[in-house]
């Protein structure tokens, strides 16, 4: 009997392992750009901060699992399903956070924080694109595992 170990592709981009750092780095930019401002004056940024910090922590957690190859020691976990659920939920919630972020940025509200908020909105959409791509590849991996 041959045991096939699943390599969790949802942790890095198909182009290589170095691109796997894009989500944590861009996600870190999103919430630090907002956290460095007086974001509490705009209630919508609370949602953006929650999503950005929550998925940044989870992404770093899964990245550590991948780097340490812990997933090989836990074969009972359906890693393809975990990857699909993680990426799809991150995509949906980050999309909503990016839209909320972009719609909350206004130069009239606080011109001092405008540049940081606009940059966080830009990076939120970049992170959303990253999670969308990884959702697609996680779905392909999940579908090929369920067919077998």
TrEMBL record:
Q: Name one GO molecular function term.
A: structural constituent of myelin sheath
Entry-linked InterPro entries: MAL, Marvel, MARVEL-CKLF_proteins
Provide the membrane topology annotation: Multi-pass membrane protein
Residues in the signal sequence: none
What transmembrane ranges does the database entry give?
21-40, 46-67, 79-97, 117-142
Q: Which Pfam families match?
A: MARVEL
UniProt entry keywords in alphabetical sequence: Membrane, Transmembrane, Transmembrane helix
Location in or out of the cell: Membrane
- Membrane as a keyword of this entry, yes or no, is yes
GO BP of this protein = myelination
Q: Name one GO cellular component term.
A: membrane
Ranges where the MARVEL domain occurs:
11-143
Q: Transmembrane: is it a keyword of this entry?
A: yes
What is this protein's record name? CKLF like MARVEL transmembrane domain containing 8
Q: What species does this protein belong to?
A: Saimiri boliviensis boliviensis (Bolivian squirrel monkey)
Top-level taxonomy: Eukaryota, Metazoa, Chordata, Craniata, Vertebrata
Gene name of this polypeptide: CMTM8
